[in-house]
Specification:
A: 107 residues; mainly beta; 11 strands; B: 114 residues
Chain lengths: 107, 114
């Protein structure tokens, strides 16, 4: 079992829809979780961090954490074509990244 | 430019040769990380430094890989006797120095081993 698992996608959503990206992790003791966005040929850039159970909102992005289920998600509201990228889930206690989910937002 | 800087951007080498990459972190950042990324995969942790001390190194990291951060500023990653499987993007990142800090990534060094 990988330390951080993500569906590789691609996930296709129409412009304006909500994109839902999911991630599970194996280490029950993990405390810090990050979502990074990576455009093709570019380096990862941080979108959000979350440490506590529940939801954390930042603009069009909402991160959700459920430690009991070892599950992290990222919701992108009002998806735009510019959101098309690979989204990486990271568990930073162990420096692990998932393999990423590719998101395509269709105009 | 106050971002993380990596040099070179691209490196092509023949199998068996040694290569060295350099990373200059954001100036006030105490932590420096090296990751490796191949196509379709997420970044794979290699090692990290707190100032000049190398605090963790991946169990998966071959003895052919070595990293230094001699004065707690820039870092170098050396790969000895390169193999075709070493072909990847090598990413450097830095952070302010508390655990769980967000990482700022450089543009990476793309290594191709022929």
């Amino acid at each position: 079992q990988k330390e951080v698992e993500q569906n590789s996608g691609p996930l296709s959503v129409p412009e304006g829809a909500i994109a839902s990206l999911n991630c599970t992790y194996s280490d029950r003791g993990s405390q810090s979780f990050f979502w990074y966005r990576q455009y093709s040929g570019k380096s990862p850039e941080l979108i959000m961090s979350i440490y506590s159970n529940g939801d954390k909102e930042d603009g069009r992005f909402t991160a959700q954490l459920n430690k009991a289920s070892q599950y992290v998600s990222l919701l992108i509201r009002d998806s735009q074509p510019s959101d098309s990228a690979t989204y990486l889930c990271a568990v930073m206690d162990k420096f692990y990244f998932g393999s990423g989910t590719k998101l395509n937002v269709k105009p | 430019d106050t971002g993380v800087s990596q040099d070179p951007r691209h490196k092509i080498t023949k199998r068996g040769q040694n290569v060295t990459f350099r990373c200059d972190p954001i100036s006030e950042h105490n932590r420096l990380y090296w990751y490796r990324q191949t196509l379709g995969q997420g970044p794979e942790f290699l090692t990290y430094f707190q100032n000049e001390a190398q605090l963790e190194k991946s169990r998966l990291l071959s003895d052919r890989f070595s990293a230094e951060r001699p004065k707690g500023s820039f870092s170098t990653l050396e790969i000895q006797r390169t193999e075709q499987g070493d072909s990847a993007m090598y990413l450097c990142a830095s952070s302010l120095g508390t655990r769980n800090e967000k990482l700022f990534f450089g543009s990476g060094t793309q290594l191709s081993v022929l």
